[in-house]
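Table S2 (continued). Query chain:
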Amino acid sequence: MKIITSLSVILAGSLTFLPALAVEYWSPVDSGTQVELRGLSVVSTKVAWASGAKGTVLRTSDGEHWTAMQVAGAEALDFRDIQAFDQDHAIIMSAGPGPLSRLYMTTNGGASWQLLKTNQAASGFWNAMTFPDARTGLLFGDPVDGSFQVLLSTDGGLHWQEQTHEGLAALSNEGGFAASGTCITSHGSKNAWIVSGGADKTRVFSSHDQAKTWSAVNLPIPAGAPSKGAFSVAFLNEKNGMAVGGDYKLPQLNTMNGARTEDGGQSWQAVQVLPQGFMSVIATVPGAANTYVAAGLAGSGISRDAGKTWQVLSSTPMNTVAFANAELGWAVGPKGLLMKLQNR
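Corresponding output:
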């Protein structure tokens, strides 16, 4: 979907975070760039990658120092999602109309990049990708000829096959949001979920046979405008999941911004995620049972009971978050924002 703008003012600072008996903080880190950052992939406590506008990719291999680089020949592209496999191997996805949506891969820590695929549909627009394992990948894009684009890779992203099914038919004005690289998620190689917005209804699409067939149900998150809907989805396991969203043009709007499921996405219950307002990402926390962290231009919040109740973490605007474990996570956002959460 159309490129999303964000707030120009970033609130800096630190905050108390995860278990009540420990003290953790979000700490600002020098990213080495001022561009908008939206993609984030955390491999371990030492290795993480991020991506953003103007062909920008960031990497740390020691968990402390980050190196910013530009992908040669891609300086005009906006890399909205990144999937890292180790400190040397990563795939990045740019979002944009038609051929501006591309996939690149590096196997040498970003020293060089190989163009893997370009969106051949002039009306297409890639939004996000997910890799449940090193071999299996799913790529999600806006509707082409009335149906959402879903592509499957079974060789680690080298080759992709488009999946077509009547369950991917789109409503008028419906699309995905390339806000954080998380409007598609997976759990295991068979299960995948996609969330949408922009239409009269907000919906979630589910597949449980490696993207061969899909079904859609409505989400209790307001839609009805191009800037409104669900922006991110995550699952703790095959049954328990959450979606978040709102209106990116009105980041402080007091409206329903979350929904949760306990049956694999067949039915959803509305949940008010804190802080109230626009959330662009929902993330699980490895090693922390039933824990989600949500973040967006309204700030960030945490739930320790599978999304039933929430508490505010920070008012700092972020685009996405990801975690190595319960003690270490990263966040990226507007104007090169990079923050680290570490148990102190």
